[in-house]
Amino acid sequence: MQLKDLFYKISLLATSGSMSTDITNLTMDSRKVGPGSLFVAVRGTVTDGHNFIATAVSQGASAVLCEEFPAETDPSVAYVRVLDSARTMGLVAANFYGQPSQKMKLIGVTGTNGKTSVATLLFRLFRGLGYRCGLLSTVQNQIDDQVIPATHTTPDVITTNQLLTQMLTHGCTHVFMEVSSHAVVQERIAGLTFAGGIFTNITHDHLDFHGTFDNYIRAKKGFFDQLPASAFALTNVDDKRGLVMLQNTAARKETYSLQTLATFKGKIIADSLFGLNMLVDDKEVWFKLIGRFNAYNLLSVYGTAVLLGEDPAEVLTLLSGITPPPGRFEQVVSDDKIVGIVDYAHTPDALQNVLETITEIRHDDEQGRQPQIITVVGCGGNRDAAKRPIMADIACRFSNRVILTSDNPRNEDPMEILEQMQAGVSPVDYKKTVTIEDRRDAIKRAVSMARPHDIILVAGKGHETYQEIKGIKYDFDDHAVLQEAFSERGNQ
Ligand SMILES: CC(=O)N[C@H]1[C@@H](OP(=O)(O)OP(=O)(O)OC[C@H]2O[C@@H](n3ccc(=O)[nH]c3=O)[C@H](O)[C@@H]2O)O[C@H](CO)[C@@H](O)[C@@H]1O[C@H](C)C(=O)N[C@@H](C)C(=O)N[C@H](CCC(=O)O)C(=O)O
Ligand SMILES: Nc1ncnc2c1ncn2[C@@H]1O[C@H](COP(=O)(O)OP(=O)(O)OP(=O)(O)O)[C@@H](O)[C@H]1O
Ligand SMILES: N[C@H](CCC[C@H](N)C(=O)O)C(=O)O
Ligand SMILES: [Mg+2]
Fold first, then answer.
1. From 3.40.630.30, 3.40.190.10, 3.40.50.720, 3.90.190.20, which CATH number describes the 330-491 domain?
2. Within its chain, how far is the Cα of 344 from the centroid?
3. Is the CB of 37 under 6 A from ligand 1?
């Protein structure tokens, strides 16, 4: 494709060299440049892509998109200067790939918690309704049954356009994607045309990246500000910021709620270890998912399907049979009836929700003994440190025993992270906590502490199959380790 066609309807500040140059691929990484490449120089959090323009040119780049021309330009290379190269890259990528997002129904899900759950439930529901579907999520990307590993919650905009093109070729009519706040700020959704946007909730997370809670809210809202008038914006009005999200959107405003008047209204009748019994728009339904937070997820999925023109009764029938996504409130039960729950709760709000749910659904055993709640939890390294003491405190407040352990220490010292968590434990709770750096040992200790009917929550890693320590990802799977510990217990 010629360079000028890539910039169709995009405003430019200046150009140098031929706009008829043929472009065969796009990249923002100088290490992936070759002849025919348009190299996009993006300012990052660690370095500035503009520092790599010369390297890209020496590797054969045919053109460069940047915010500042380099002091020396190569006459055989075309240069294009714009105000914001990250944003422009999104628009260029959409042109390069032929606007795949406009040829399908692309639905974005944003919020602190619930994005993977909602996107995955929508993907499964719409496949059940008979459509070919795509999924872009933290756990994995999917084109119907074909699984493509995911590196981010929201991929970079070039990868997204590539994946959407593959989905289109496969015949996908509906694609569900997570929209992280990082992605909005870094323009990873620029140029995508959404048919709908969903807001789940907003609570404490990622303040390391956004600086303040207001900036974090603004980042999430940025997604709705970008929606076209043809789209719908579906928000959770029970969240304090639910309506804020829709303040400046051009999209059609729709709401869901468990507490107040809304386009889609739900009510929990019963919540147990076996599932949720709810009224959805006055129809009674049983779901296999557990917990109040899943009542919200189900309601947003139901609302989205109805807004996309599906039959409400058929949607509810299919949703009632759907099982949880991997690592979201997944249960493993030992032979002697200890209940293990593996859950991806890695934020204070998620941890509290999951523990509240466990507290609500636990029942005294046959001898009238109240089961203990034993929580194993850690906090990620090179991530928001402010949540560490808060999460330890929440774990203590809702559990009988707490084991503080590691969760992807990355490049930080695991013991320092644990000390920051310990700082949140109030003196009355000291006695119920132990700190065990090694996650496998921590899970095994929890199992050795448990008695039949006790509930062990292993929080934070969910579907993850690794423990990342100093740049190396070691095999680690909470579900498998829990199962291993249960069978060792059975053999004793
Ligand atoms: C903090 C963050 O979001 N970083 C993302 C960002 O990287 P960066 O800003 O550090 O980039 P940089 O290293 O400064 O480089 C700037 C530019 O120079 C280029 N470069 C760099 C070196 C070189 O030799 N040549 C070269 O061209 C880079 O390709 C880049 O374009 O842009 C990269 C390219 O898109 C991302 O891969 C990277 O994600 C990192 C790996 C990451 O861990 N991101 C996490 C925090 C993240 O995005 N998480 C959210 C989910 C959060 C949630 O809701 O839970 C997600 O959507 O996944
Ligand atoms: N609607 C919800 N409200 C609050 N907590 C939720 C909700 N849905 C799920 N959770 C909790 O949050 C955890 C993470 O859920 P999920 O993976 O769906 O969120 P996410 O927004 O995709 O997270 P990430 O930012 O890592 O992509 C779950 O394991 C569960 O504990
Ligand atoms: N999307 C989140 C996932 C955190 C999962 C947790 N296990 C951790 O490693 O901190 C992040 O990258 O911040
Ligand atoms: Mg996710």
1. 3.90.190.20
2. 11
3. no
Q: Which residues are annotated as a binding site?
A: 30, 111-117, 153-154, 180, 186, 188, 383, 407-410, 460, 464
C-beta separation of 424 from 463 below 8 A: no
**47 ligand 1 Cβ < 6 A:** yes
359-389 pLDDT, tens digit per residue, is 988 888 888 999 999 999 999 999 999 999 9
pTM for this model (two decimals): 0.91
- ipTM of predicted assembly, 2 dp: 0.94
DSSP class of 325: P
* Number of residues assigned to the chain: 492
- C-alpha triplet 447, 451, 454: angle, nearest 5°: 85
pLDDT 10s digits, 76-113: 999 999 999 999 999 999 999 999 999 999 999 999 99
Q: Which residues line ligand 3 (CB under 6 A)?
A: 138, 153, 346, 380, 383, 407-408, 460-461, 464
H helices of 256-385, where?
292-307, 312-320, 348-361
